[in-house]
């Protein structure tokens, strides 16, 4: 902590003596002038205290400047701003730029790794990267080929680099690392390649691995402490992961960890989610498949698991549990609670006590969700915490080679990785969601290292009777209720930003940057950027002026349907409107667009 | 696995010739002229589809749809229509021959430049693909001529008697 703080002060003192960095970025509740971590603050709220842009003047926003990244693939992720410098990275080849905000975004340095292009096809669903992290005077990047590299933030020179996994076996790096104190945390992609997921901590100073906790395997691998680690308040038994699989299937069990990470300085816990079990054919992997689809709370120093909760035991739908864990302090039934809120791919919004892992709220955040009727919230019930399945929509129940139809949500979830934002001012979450259903047919699949290991065919389409494939919603996590909902023609795949000006921002697949009223959802401003937005909006202040920035560049999972559009198997001929192809609205292109209010 | 050996040979020939723009061959007339255990062939002996007047498709086209959607859709998009990072196969199959397709699938393909990083993996050792390569080819050939539309074929011929044994022996 001290080291990075010292560097922060040094840079600040040298470049902008009038601006002081907050004393401890890791304990900050919200972003301010800087945006120093992927989510603005380590609690994952994507909330900024800046309020120059507010609900009254947001309609006057203008484009202040733009920057082309030179890469055409899908741009997930977001820039960071520390002092006078903006840092951003691109999809493969994972170029990193440092831009000088004091000189119209002049390029201070550029880092372009040389990576084996053979890693490209083992990146399921586009060659995305979700951003860089900052700390200890360094910029951290988890490259596609699973090289974790630390760059000197001032020069871009490589300080150290380590390999976190083997990309020839299907493991890839797409996640944004998170820096806390003297460590940098990373996860891995490759659930569709039979990779066994893990989450690891490296020393920011020299890249030495400090600990690594696997998503499945013996306790010595998962860092679960039998008798101490709790699952919904109960201590877990020895090797609880291994015993939930048949034979040694856990060795290729999936549970990738490519989502967002958050941290609570009070308990020193780090939170993240694990993804789907491999394969997508549930009949081939009987059991609960622990701990895929799980919320993890680990001690940040040792990796020891404090608590965990598996949301979707024995997944049959590809409902990855990797989405963001947002830490908030709110009242429930008049009581102050320290909460963790998570919008899962499976369509349920979960609210837990982040110190104990107790489940408080679990409700559908899209009314279309039908695979489960509810989550069992009765602590006395033998199925406490488990979803109550509707067998009609359970491909594993219906069997191999049977096409289960009209399952909602689709495999991409009611929400995918596109992160939500929380405003402590309104007490609401702002959530970009997908409104898409699917047919799912599992079948036998064979495993070859480094080859796709999928085992299901699926078709996706909007819910019956609807034409919109997304919604941007405001959610009360203390009650589990939608407060307002703005329909979007396509899945809302850009991450949200909440601000103290009571303006909420998000991007759409057609390429619109939208500003809406935090209280009502009323559209205040929109601008069509060069390409579809799957990146996350951020904000910063420079020279007394508030800026809002977002990366455009359509792609990712959302890009699969770009050319084709989705079909509606139930509508017959002549279905138009919501089912239109996205390529009638936008095209490839990586660009940063930065907005601000006009200067007098 | 004679099919695999043949694939390797084709790959070597294609690589050696190094002439990606030579397009002397075309896929030819897709009309089915013969049938062997539910698998149809065109006049040149290449695998092809058969769609009945009622829209019922041959079993291989149906299996091809299923296997395409599991193994190829992630890059090439639903129904072979392409995505943001891989080309449309509905278009590509208008000019690719059976041998070219098998060669590309088995050996992979690279087109990497500053702005585009198109890389198809070598799938020659992937049984989930290679055991169904003829079915996938037949399905996409039908898509390229619009003989089969988007989505899951509504009806298909029954599974041929020898199909399951052949499938099991290939998948191991």
Short description, anyone?
The complex is a heterodimer of chains A (600) and B (172). Chain A is mainly beta and 600 residues long.
Keywords:
heterodimer, A: 600 residues, mainly beta, Methanol Dehydrogenase, Chain A, six-stranded mixed beta sheet, five-stranded mixed beta sheet, 3 helices, globular, disordered N terminus, B: 172 residues, mainly alpha, Cytochrome Bc1 Complex, Chain D, domain 2, three-stranded antiparallel beta sheet, two-stranded antiparallel sheet, 8 helices, 9% strand
Q: What would you note in describing this structure?
A:
The complex is a heterodimer of chains A (600) and B (172). Chain A is mostly beta strands and 600 residues long. Chain A has one domain: Quinoprotein alcohol dehydrogenase-like superfamily (Methanol Dehydrogenase, Chain A, 8 Propeller). Helix content of chain A is 4%, strand content 34%. Chain A has a six-stranded mixed sheet, with no helix packed on it. A five-stranded mixed sheet of chain A has the order 1-34-35-36-37, with no helix packed on it. Chain A has a four-stranded antiparallel sheet with strand order 2-40-39-38, with no helix packed on it. Chain B has a single domain (2-17, 30-171), classed as Cytochrome Bc1 Complex, Chain D, domain 2 (Orthogonal Bundle), CATH 1.10.760. The interface between A and B is large, with 48 and 39 residues.
Main pleated sheet of chain B: 3 strands, antiparallel
The shape of chain B is globular
CA distance, first residue to last residue of chain B: 11 Å
Number of helices of chain B: 8
pLDDT average of chain B, as an integer?
85
* Assigned CATH class of chain A: Mainly Beta
**Oligomeric organization of the protein chains:** heterodimer
Question: Architecture of chain B in CATH?
Answer: Orthogonal Bundle
* CATH homologous superfamily title of chain A: Quinoprotein alcohol dehydrogenase-like superfamily
CATH topology of chain B: Cytochrome Bc1 Complex, Chain D, domain 2
Helix percent band of chain A: under 10%
From the alpha-carbon coordinates, what is the Rg of chain B to the nearest angstrom? Answer: 16 Å
In helices, the fraction of residues of chain B equals: 40-55%
Mean pLDDT of chain A: 91
Q: Which class do the helix and strand fractions of chain A yield?
A: mainly beta
Using CB atoms under 8 Å apart, which protein chain pair has the greatest interface? Answer: A-B, 48 and 39 residues
